[in-house]
Amino acid sequence: MSTTTTTKPDFQEWNVTEPYLHLHCALSEGPYYERESNSLRFVDIKKHRVHWVNLSEGPNSVTTTQLDVPVTVTADIEGVDPREKILIGVKHGIAVLDRKSGEGKYEYVARFFDNEEEGKRLRSNDGAADPNGRFWLGSMTDIGLDLRAEGHLHLFNPGSPKAQSIKHPLTIPNALTWSPDGKTMYFTHSTAKTIYAFDYDTSADGSLSNERVFYQHVGKGEPDGCRVDVEGNLWHAVYGEARVLKISKEGELIGQVNLPTDNITCTQFVGTELFITTAKMEEGGGDGDGDEERVRLSGAVYKVDVGVEGLEPFKVKLEL
How far apart are the C-alpha atoms of 65 and 48, rounded to whole Å? Predict the structure, then answer.
């Protein structure tokens, strides 16, 4: 894997040329650092898989769990060893995946709606636990159906079998992250090319207020998944633009990671290394120059040392 770094006044660039791991994923997403096993786990939404790679052993250590539905995001559960059980986002809401079985067995703990008919056109997308242990999860049009503005931003409270709809209608609700002090929540609506910020009440209430546009993207691509570093900068993947944006806590573009394929989906810190997931490019899906190589390098995982650490994710509180 080859990387280079360029620093200009007030703007940093990193160039990544080769994958760290290439599983030829259709839609790799949701990278998550599993500290207990020193593993990076991530999903392939279209192939219904969760992958783990042990970072001590390297790319040859990959293990995979096959599910019978699209799995879109994962999270650790408070008080539970992630080598045994993790939370996953699936078709109708959130579920607990039994890793020890090795057979892709999962059990729903809460759903988007009272009945499946109401959400039959939808599936989950990106999500994250908040400082209070609740889980936020977007829903959008399911794979293979005509994309509509019919999705929601849902909130799952511990012990409740059904989610609250916080924001609707949405087309592709995406990343959810928090500032280092936990007082600002960021939410990305990909099709609007907009990252919103909210004041987040860090008390037990966890309410939102003061919704505002934090960053409006200009370009052919759409902002996708994101993580925040300890300095408060957002590291935001852009689907369709072959780059990850470094956005300051003031909402200014101050750097970028350039990649050799277009469909960049999400980021995850492990120490000062930023791991980056990507999705498959179709033949002829680029701008023409070097299309064959860009397609070959799509659906892979990349990494680059960016010299700053990321925030630890919050864990989900569940009544199991």
Answer: 9
What is the number of other CB atoms lying within 10 angstroms of the CB of residue 15?
Answer: 15
- Spatial distance between the Cα atoms of 123 and 143, rounded to a whole number of angstroms: 8
Dihedral sign for Cα 128, 130, 134, 136, please: negative
pLDDT, one tens digit per residue, over 199-243 is 999 987 899 999 999 999 999 999 999 999 999 999 999 999 999
How far is residue 138's CA from residue 167's CA, in Å, rounded to a whole number? 9
Indicate the DSSP class of residue 190: G
Q: Indicate if the alpha-carbon torsion angle 104, 265, 236, 141 is positive or negative.
A: negative
Nearest to 190 by CA among 29, 3, 2, 53: 29
Q: Any idea what DSSP says for residue 101?
A: T
User: pLDDT, tens digit, for every residue of 304-317?
Assistant: 999 999 999 999 99
**How far is residue 164's CA from residue 144's CA, in Å, rounded to a whole number?**
26
Enumerate the H helices of 190-281 as residue ranges: none
Cα(218)–Cα(101) distance, rounded to whole angstroms?
46
First and final C-alpha spacing in the chain: 42
What pTM did the predictor assign?
Answer: 0.95
**Nearest Cα to 265, choosing from 275, 252, 278, 256?**
278
Contact 201, 209 (CB under 8 A): yes
Residue-by-residue DSSP string for 273-293:
EEEEEEBPPPTT-S-STTHHH
CB 44 within 8 A of CB 51: yes
Question: Which two three-digit tokens encode residue 31?
Answer: 């990278």
**What's the CA angle centered on 174, arms 12 and 231, to 5 degrees?**
35
